[in-house]
Amino acid sequence: MDQSQAPILDALEEYHRLDRYGFSPPGHRQGRGADGRVTQILGVDPFRSDVLASGGLDDRRSSNGYLSKAEQLMADAVRAERAYFSTCGSSLSVKAAMLAVAGNNPGGLLVSRDSHKSIVAGLIFSGVTPRWITPRWDEDMHFSHPPSPGQVQTMWEEYPDAAGALIVSPSPYGTCADIETIAKVCHERGKPLIVDEAWGAHLPFHDDLPTWAMDAGADVCVVSIHKMGAGFEQGSVYHLQGDLVDGTHLSQCADLLTTTSPNVMLYAAIDGWRRQMVEHGTELLGRALSLAGRTRERIADIDGLNVLEERLLGEEASHDLDRLQILVDVSELGVSGFQCTDWIRERCHLDVGMHDHRRIMATMSMADDDRTADRLVTSLESLARAAGEFDRPPKMYLPSPDELQLESVMSPREAFFGPTEMVDAAGSADRVAAEQLTPYPPGIPAVVPGELLDQAVIDYLRSGVDAGMEIPDAADGTLRHIRVVSQR
């Protein structure tokens, strides 16, 4: 296919060139009705681009097929058979994949327990029964790795009637699973593999990055264009290949969840990013990888900071690593990752991504250059010098891997929608959780509705909140109370 095309961008340019106008939503009429105080900050261009719902570029009302052409180009660019754009984020895309594969299967779905909260939301929404695959654990570092092929094989032996398997790779830490072997394990049973590859949209476009899920044999994979690409927040693509998942049914499942008023800016940015990657991706990502390598070395030279790399790889760890994700252990400074994130934001006006009790993450992208890398390194040098003046962080209780594996005694849907009550967290052990409890970032639930709470996980979360951890989906953000299944 002619990858120099950008059908949605071209159609948007034509829309403006022809001075088209619509007596239909959106009511702001290309910004004419927008408050000047809004356009002073946002500019008028976002409103001028918000035309899809007016019918101007809406494939539902015309035979032009701009969106379908853009999706075909994306599939061709990344070596998938089909691609589908979403303007509701990978949270929608992964739910659609779960529904398409396991929506009415009593055998449930094999799901990696290190999944993002959006996957748990999909379980609640769909009623699909999770068959949890336990991730591998580095107990000393209190760090999880994606599941191994052997763990997936063991789960298939225990739950042979499951509809398929779903794993997350790369993880929010940049660690990757052995997707190729896991796909073979699933395909030997004639079952599909879904990969939540939200952090891997860039992987198809450079050979020195971890293996792209479609190249590794996955049946469906979901990517977020904004995370490691150059699209807007909420821009997502889900890809399909093979005959184990019905593409029409997958699209219909997405249609159940998606908005009927998508924003063309998100589509256009996905379309343009695909063209940019095909034409310049190797060069741009190669430069980013080189910059990230140099930045890793500079950070590793700062006293008290340890850049994690080899510790994350190996037979009992992760299969591969996206080295654009720079994970820094700050524990030698005697401070927490929560404190470091707050200090850097307040003093250096710099935001880092993932953080936890002993680590912070800096994500590099093709947009970074020597200037931004220098700013990161300088801020971390300042942090290391200032850390001795920090208050000592509150001590967190860190459970063992076994203590973190809660027993599922009800389906997530049944627990979430059934009768519930708020109870004192101190007395909630042995009660069935009715809500997700998700340290954020990275957004992996420590507690899923339907799981039996234990004292170790309660102590972990409550001590974490005291140390700076945020649990935004808890009914009580202070975690003094927890929503549980009612016993009345």
Please give the structural blueprint:
Blueprint: H1 7-17, H2 36-42, H3 45-48, H4 66-78, E1 82-86, H5 89-102, E2 109-112, H6 117-126, E3 130-133, E4 136-138, E5 143-145, H7 149-158, E6 165-168, E7 175-176, H8 179-187, E8 193-196, E9 220-224, H9 225-228, E10 236-240, H10 247-257, H11 264-300, E11 306-307, E12 320-321, E13 325-329, H12 337-348, E14 359-363, H13 370-386, H14 401-404, H15 412-417, E15 420-424, H16 455-467, E16 481-485
Parallel strand pairs: 2-3, 2-6, 6-8, 8-9
Antiparallel strand pairs: 1-10, 4-5, 7-12, 9-10, 11-13, 13-14, 15-16
Helix pairs in contact: 1-11, 4-11, 5-6, 5-10, 7-8, 11-13
Structural write-up:
Among the domains are: 281-389, Alpha-Beta Complex (Aspartate Aminotransferase, domain 1); 401-485, Ornithine Decarboxylase, Chain A, domain 4 (Alpha-Beta Complex), CATH 3.90.100.10. It has helices at 7-17, 36-42, 45-48, 66-78, 89-102, 117-126, 149-158, 179-187, 225-228, 247-257, 264-300, 337-348, 370-386, 401-404, 412-417, 455-467, and strands at 82-86, 109-112, 130-133, 136-138, 143-145, 165-168, 175-176, 193-196, 220-224, 236-240, 306-307, 320-321, 325-329, 359-363, 420-424, 481-485. It has a seven-stranded mixed β-sheet with strand order 1-10-9-8-6-2-3, sandwiched between helices. The protein has 16 helices and 16 strands. Helices cover 37% and strands 13% of the residues. It is globular and about 65 Å long. It has 488 residues and is α/β, with parallel strands linked by helices. Helix 4 (66-78) runs parallel beside helix 11 (264-300).
